[in-house]
Design goal:
Helix content is 39%, strand content 13%. It is α/β, with parallel strands linked by helices and 466 residues long. The chain folds into three domains: 104 residues, no CATH class; 130 residues, no CATH class; 156 residues, Ribonuclease H-like superfamily/Ribonuclease H (Nucleotidyltransferase, domain 5), CATH 3.30.420. Strands 6, 7, 8, 10, 11 and 12 form a six-stranded mixed beta sheet that branches. It has a four-stranded antiparallel beta sheet with strand order 1-2-3-4, with no helix packed on it. The chain is elongated, with a radius of gyration of 30 Å. The two termini are 56 Å apart. Bound molecules: zinc ion. Zinc ion binds next to loops. It comes from Novosphingobium cyanobacteriorum.
Length: 466
């Protein structure tokens, strides 16, 4: 109804009613005083009143005392862009009948309580939201492009899904903490309540933060990530969506981070359960622009349901044992090799089984082996070598997280995509997960002696970019 009352004008009127000075309002809204002054003048022109009357007019309207019908009409007339609709008349009659409960139901004690214009509500958010995931069963091929297009035909459908996923069933207003209806704000990836103009951008600080790429494209690439065996590269996205390589790499990087963040809090083991622990050396890690010169150590733990792997700076007990404490549930039986960093495990209260490979032992005297973690290394190393060839040290944890996300769901492939869009973790968390791997001095590289016959050395050409 108050088509031109925006959030800031709302706040402006509220401040004027509290007799704030122009300077105070400017400070609050983080704008110049001249801008506040200009907006006050605009309001006065539109309401045909003096500045001194503005605050009184607003307070009187807010107080909603009897006999204010004309005042409400006057305000409505001043602000309406189009003529009153039938709905407006009904609301106005309701306001007249009971001014205290004007327009948006019962009044409550939150500041700036003004109705939102019908022009900015494009759609009331439907509650409860029916998640398209519930129709996905093992036999229903929930992994296909057709299913994706049916569930998320346009950007609005994607945004609506993200909104409901992030609200997680709690639709209270952020300010007054009461159950409210949320409205989509037209033209923005943003939702708002009518009570305090609390607004919420579902894609903010998530995988799609400030991205101008359509949400349908994001969902499609996430489906490719879920369906592929070894992941998707930046060049693939460049070709698939017809966007720049930089945009494609950024999308891939962010989706990898998203998957790694979803996977980072996993715990494995439990009373009486076997947890296999091992570490592997990954060659071909890019350091300081030198390809293939570096190596990284990856530390892995797995039980029969899931695997956790982390990039670690070294193999010292001080590095590895806290990670075991963090990710393995108490009461588990740990199976490791005879590496000395694990020698303190029994002293720390773990049930510890050692398989001594140096004695040619692959299953120890008690019948414990390490086949499951060795199988994991085989697949993991092939993924990195086969698809990504060289990954940088700084990004390694994201590649590991992405791989684990798929690997841990390999028996339920129809769940992978839906798990990816079920939760949208805060990207600010990646700072705490990034493990700083110190980069040592580069290893001396063996260089071929220059040719003496004057023929220039041939460069290896890459036919198909990865
Ligand atoms: Zn509120």
């Amino acid at each position: 109804m108050f088509a031109r009352i925006t959030g800031k004008q709302n706040q402006l009127l509220d401040c004027l009613a509290k007799a704030w000075s122009v300077e105070q309002i400017a400070q609050l809204q983080n704008v110049q005083a001249a801008s506040v002054r200009r907006r006050i003048n605009n309001l006065c022109t539109r309401l045909e009143c003096r500045e001194s009357d503005l605050a009184g007019l607003y307070s009187a309207w807010l107080d909603g005392q009897a006999g204010e019908r004309n005042l409400i009409r006057q305000l409505c007339r001043s602000f309406l862009l189009a003529g009153p609709t039938a709905q407006d008349n009904i609301l106005e009659d309701q306001a007249a009948a009971s001014p205290a409960q004007a327009i948006e139901g019962p009044r409550h004690a939150c500041p700036g309580d003004l109705p939102v214009s019908p022009q900015i509500r494009t759609r009331v958010v439907q509650e409860p939201y029916e998640n398209p995931r519930i129709a996905i069963t093992p036999g229903s091929k929930g992994t296909s492009r057709k299913v994706l297009q049916r569930a998320f035909p346009d950007n609005d459908a994607c945004l609506n899904h993200i909104f409901h996923a992030r609200m997680a069933g709690d639709y209270r207003c952020f300010k007054c903490r009461q159950e409210r209806r949320w409205y989509r704000i037209a033209g923005f990836r943003r939702y708002a309540t009518a009570c305090c103009a609390s607004s919420f951008a579902p894609t903010g600080r998530t995988v799609m933060h400030r991205s101008s790429i359509p949400l349908t494209d994001w969902f499609e690439i996430m489906l490719l990530f879920a369906n592929s065996k070894n992941g998707v590269t930046g060049h693939f996205i460049e070709r698939h969506l017809g966007i720049a390589y930089k945009s494609g790499f950024r999308m891939a990087d962010r989706i990898r981070t998203h998957m790694a963040l979803l996977e980072c809090d996993r715990k494995i083991g439990g009373p009486g359960k076997l947890v296999h622990i091992d570490e592997a050396l990954l060659r071909g890690i890019r350091t300081n622009g030198v390809r293939g010169g570096g190596r990284a150590i990856v530390f892995g733990m797995c039980d029969e349901t899931a695997t956790i792997a982390l990039a670690v700076p070294d193999r010292k007990a001080a590095t590895l044992l806290p990670l075991i404490d963090r990710h393995v549930l108490p009461g588990s039986i740990l199976v490791t090799d005879a590496y000395h960093s694990y020698s303190q495990l029994a002293a720390r209260g773990w049930n510890h089984e050692i398989v001594n490979h140096s004695r040619g032992e692959w299953v120890n005297a008690n019948g414990f082996g390490q086949a499951s973690i060795e199988a994991y290394w085989g697949v993991f190393k092939r993924t990195i070598r086969g698809t990504h060839l060289h990954v940088s040290r700084a990004n390694l944890w994201k590649y590991i997280g992405e791989f684990n996300f798929r690997y841990n769901r390999r028996h339920v492939p129809h769940e992978i995509f839906w798990d990816m869009i079920e939760h949208f973790p805060d990207f600010d968390r990646q700072a705490e997960l990034r493990i700083d791997i110190p980069i040592g001095p580069p290893r001396p590289r063996k260089r071929r002696p220059p040719r003496t016959d004057g023929v220039p050395r041939k460069r290896a050409s890459r036919i198909f970019r990865n």
